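Q: My labmate handed me this sequence with no annotations at all. I'd like to see what the chain might look like in three dimensions before we decide whether it's worth expressing. Could you predict it?
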Amino acid sequence: MLNVSKLIEEGLINDKGWAERDETFQLAPGMPALQTSRMPWMDGTGTPVGQPAMFELIARYITYVWRTGLAVSPNAGGIVTKEELMSKVEQVLGDGDIRERARLLMDASRRCIGGSGSSCENFSKFVGLLSE
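A: Here is what I predict for the chain of 132 residues:
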């Protein structure tokens, strides 16, 4: 699994988050491949210019890994029309498989944040460490 310090160490990005060379990489198995030229997370002033790339990564994960959403297609002018969005919403709402996967993710999330779930336990440990 890669992290930011590893990306810097390998020369993919510099300490400012700018791509040092054009290369494709994966942060972890099963995640979509990323292109370094699309990962300038911050410019010199701290502006999050890399947000579109992060949004694209999240959208790909929802669409192709979790399979709980659909990709939208812009028209020739680069605009996603109201009709395109309505079509995708209707497809998602009408697809029983997507609804079932979303329900399974919701159930897993609820278990994690419940009283004996992993998120609750980890948060309690974190608060305990802060209290020491």
